[in-house]
Design a protein that fits this description.
Number of strands: 0
Largest sheet: none
Shape: globular
Low-confidence stretches: none
Mean pLDDT: 88
Number of helices: 12
Order of helices and strands: HHHHHHHHHHHH
Distance between the termini: 46 Å
Radius of gyration: 19 Å
């Protein structure tokens, strides 16, 4: 069965942002870390892969490895930044991290080409066509899901859940919560970096505006819609985020009001979930807690 490029495009976007949302749900829903710098780790992965392959001519395998390593190193730095803070201050520091990344990407043209961005980012030859790239993206989504699920069902994952529910209690029981938080952030950052590489190779062009507040809204919205603490819920949230606006394309509305209608629908949807179902669609952690 042949799918139109339009459908395949949506499949790729859902796969990429699904991977990204699962990485955020892993560290925020399961680890209890208020991570609003996730979009910066996404951008680090995209820039790392693009710089390595497009500018310096390395192979695509090196590009993907560089993206994963870059996301992990960025998360390691972020973990050091927030190691002594909790709650609102943690959220603010992670958001500050995202702003710093944006400023560096915009103002260090020697590394990132600044506002000009990096064009002509080619896809790997093996998945150069849109159908093959869509299939590869979905396969990676499934692999990442099973890997993160295995981690969450391991002793390390159980400690993550204990740290989220009662960090002081976990520390009293002798668990090194600082180490658990650091490792969880690094794992999440590596997955976000992988998603960044997939995005860069798919779109073919990146610039600083590709990784700003708009992407952060997409990721957080998807995780909240799907439910904190649910990897599959995050993917469902991403699908809802992309498919509902696309469905509106077939509604006979004036072009000047279509964007406003989309925003109204999403705002209403978020409010309804927060008020009626605080845990989200498949969430295991209440937004009220």
């Amino acid at each position: 069965m042949m799918f139109s490029p339009y459908i395949l495009h949506l499949v790729v976007l859902i796969a990429i942002y699904g991977i990204l949302a699962m990485a955020l749900s892993f560290v925020m829903g399961h680890g209890g870390v208020l991570q609003f710098g996730h979009v910066a780790l996404f951008g680090i992965g995209a820039y790392a892969s693009a710089i390595l392959t497009t500018i310096h001519g390395f192979s695509f395998s090196i590009g993907f490895l560089g993206a994963i390593a870059g996301g992990g190193l960025g998360a390691l730095f972020l973990s050091a930044l927030i190691r002594r803070v909790r709650g609102d201050f943690m959220a603010l520091l992670t958001l500050f991290f995202a702003f710093v990344f944006y400023a560096i990407a915009l103002n260090v043209p020697e590394l990132t080409r600044g506002a000009l961005g990096i064009p002509a980012i080619a896809r790997p030859a093996l998945v150069a066509s849109l159908p093959s790239y869509a299939l590869a993206s979905m396969i990676i989504l499934v692999v990442v899901y099973f890997l993160l699920t295995r981690i969450l069902h391991s002793p390390f994952g159980l400690v993550m859940g204990a740290m989220r529910d009662d960090e002081l209690g976990a520390r009293v029981l002798g668990k090194n919560t600082a180490h658990v938080q650091r490792v969880a952030l690094v794992l999440s950052g590596m997955v976000a970096g992988l998603a960044g590489a997939l995005y860069a190779y798919y779109i073919g062009f990146i610039d600083p505006s590709s990784f700003y507040l708009g992407d952060l809204v997409i990721i957080v919205t998807a995780v909240v819609l799907g439910g904190l603490g649910s990897l599959e819920g995050s993917v469902i949230g991403v699908a809802i985020y992309f498919l509902i606006p696309e469905a509106l394309r077939f509604v006979d509305l004036p072009a000047e009001t279509l964007g406003a209608v989309r925003q109204i629908i999403f705002t209403t949807l978020l409010l309804l979930i927060i008020l009626v179902r605080p845990r989200g669609i498949l969430g295991k952690v209440s937004l009220e807690s």
